[in-house]
Amino acid sequence: MIQILVTGANGQLAQCLKTLTTNLEGYQFYFYSRNDFDISDKAKVEAIFKTKNFSFCINCAAFTNVDTSESNKETSDLINHKAVYNLAVACTQNNVKLIHVSTDFVFDGNQSLPYQETDKTNPLGVYGNSKLLGEKAIQNTLKAHYILRTSWLYSEFGNNFLKTMLRLAETRPEIGVVFDQVGTPTYAVDLAALIISIIQKDNDAFGVYHYSNEGVASWYDFAVAIFNLKNLNTKVLPIRSIQYPTPAKRPSFSVFDKQKVKHTFNVSIPHWRTSLEKCLQNV
Ligand SMILES: NC(=O)c1ccc[n+]([C@@H]2O[C@H](COP(=O)([O-])OP(=O)(O)OC[C@H]3O[C@@H](n4cnc5c(N)ncnc54)[C@H](OP(=O)(O)O)[C@@H]3O)[C@@H](O)[C@H]2O)c1
What we know:
The chain is of the alpha/beta class. Helix content is 40%, strand content 18%. It has helices at residues 12-21, 42-51, 66-71, 73-94, 126-141, 161-169, 188-201, 219-229, 259-265, 272-280; strands at 2-7, 27-31, 54-59, 97-103, 145-150, 153-154, 174-178, 182-183, 186-187, 207-210, 217-218, 235-239. The chain has a 6-stranded parallel sheet, sandwiched between helices. Strands 6-9 form a two-stranded parallel ribbon. The longest helix is centred in the first third of the chain and has 22 residues, at 73-94. It binds NADP nicotinamide-adenine-dinucleotide phosphate (NAP). It holds the Pfam family RmlD_sub_bind.
């Protein structure tokens, strides 16, 4: 039985993994929430890695509040960088392969062509910077790593843009949503399925990979699609980012080139609208 450690069990990605792996034969997944396993606690990291003979660690734990990060640099750095280093060291010492999740926020968004894994990083804020430092800590410590950069993650679990839109629609007849940030929504269940494919292939094709759903959208497009598919009459007003100021600046363009992940793991990626329809059946 292949044993797999999953951190951040109460987060949306980990919950998607849980639903997909319940009956996966040949694999035993161990899910740890922050309460059971704080990844910034070095002694705890060392102890947990000794409890089983893990083959993989999937790091779903992160400090994901992009705006709060701006005024909480230390916490963001602790969880997204220093704790990730702890995991990478433990993986090296225990011969465990690390699957880590990173973000489109490592880029500044100034490019006009889809971002490849080799494109220059230049985070615009504290969160993106902490995530980039986490990536580098892994790359400098552990050969056996898969770093999966993803974007605009949503699902039926946790807090995300989809849930926010549906909540706002209950009380507001119209909602202003930015149209000048373009990227691709990613259904966390699809990302979880990719992670399972990587584990099942186990082909040691280590490195950085870009993964989102297929297609391109603005947040405005995403909101319109949510309300259309839900048959809600909520009106969506296209607004500019400067009309919706946030503590953290976001990349205005973060579409990914996904050739590498598709070829390496032989996966087909659903269009974001197809996956949105699927997700809405569970919300
Ligand atoms: N959400 C997005 O739009 C997005 C976009 C691109 C990339 N990503 C990346 O995708 C990954 C998964 O994101 P997600 O949306 O599933 O995040 P999430 O729902 O915010 O889940 C993160 C989980 O990490 C846990 N956590 C925080 N600090 C921890 C610590 N010190 N030790 C252990 N667990 C800790 C949190 O615990 P609590 O539940 O107790 O807070 C939470 O359950 C993250 O690496 C994120 O950076 C996300």
